[in-house]
Amino acid sequence: MLKKINVAELVLGMYFCGFDAGWLNHPFWKTRFLLKHENDLEQARASGIAYCWIDISRGRDVMAVVEDDRMTVPSGAPRDGDEDAALAVGAIVARTADDPAQEQAIALREHARELTRSMFTAARMGKVVALPQCVDLVEEIACSVLRDPTGLLSVLRLKLNDEYTYLHSVAVCALMVALGRTLGLSESACREAGLCGYLHDVGKAFIDDDILNKPGKLSDEEFALIKRHPELGYQYLIQNPDMPAYACEVCLHHHERLDGRGYPDALAADAITQYTRMTAICDVYDALTSERPYKQGWDPADALYQMASWEGHFDRRLLLAFVKTLGIYPVGSLVRLESGLAGRVIRQNPADLTRPVVQVLHTRDEHDIGSNGVLDLMAWPRTDGIVQRGQDANPAS
Ligand SMILES: [Fe+2]
Ligand SMILES: [Fe+2]
Q1: 180 with 317, same domain?
Q2: Same-domain pairing of 67 and 124
Q3: Which of 3, 153, 252, 254 is deepest in the core (most CB within 10 A)?
Q4: Domain of residue 29, residue span
Q5: What is the pLDDT of residues 250-262, one digit of tens each?
Q6: Residues whose beta carbons lie less than 5 angstroms from ion ligand 1
Q7: Cα-atom radius of gyration of the chain, to the nearest Å?
């Protein structure tokens, strides 16, 4: 799980995943590694680069450092030059780095991103969309989601600038499949929903990348250009006579709203199809929660809470099913527990969505929570519960 931090916050035991800068400015020959040597820290600080990325599932989190002075340091805590100890603390804050399911999810993420990049490039070159390739990829994504509903989604949250649109397409596809399953759709309908999600933003292939990836506020002209992507995508998809009508429909109308205030056609609620309503939810959720180099994504639980408060935007029944799909505290959400511990949700308990499994971010006494720092809030006798969600639940944030 990647996290953007200030370079000044780097300490031994963190798993470094690159600077938030071009690789030419990079002082290291490796881009990803466990920080074990004081020398590495000095080089990082001397680089003059303000921000970098760390993987908190493979090393220490900032939180553990902030608390170090006050907490009971575990016997495996890192000391200068103590490499094994640094690794041991990494294990406290995280699930195992050698998780084969996560490796599979990462491999699928890379594969899907490259196929999608090619699909967008072909669109720009005026080639008709290759439907069989899209269907095959949706099948792979669907199999992954049905096997492990959260694995792929959790590795799709971080999106670098040049891959955002591609990974967003893949993420919306995966969310659609998962939502379809919650709704009790047939296997084939789940895949249809996945195809809709995958192709919903294909019209962005025809919008300038500089506008699409602009970090700051868009001008009125730029926003007007971006708002053309549903129609551009629709015009592109209908060039393929084999393209299902439902996918073209979703592409054209995924920015419509139930209260008629959407675009491009300001459709009334009963004119918006179920696949389109589903896509609107998955699309906004992924856009809100995506981690970008220039902005931190919304906490997943906060995003669901906010979306539920927007009157007239989404279909309430489908939004409830979406919450049931991801959990009230989706994987990746920050929570504060009754005991005062802060943690990140790593798994749902389908029998009670208010009591997920939590990875504790730090502890004053590791023996309270077991050596791997994982708390199952469904465990009996009951030991803890959630009292706060979102970024504010983590005092280090
Ligand atoms: Fe869109
Ligand atoms: Fe989108």
Answers
A1: yes
A2: no
A3: 254
A4: 2-92
A5: 999 999 999 999 9
A6: 201
A7: 22
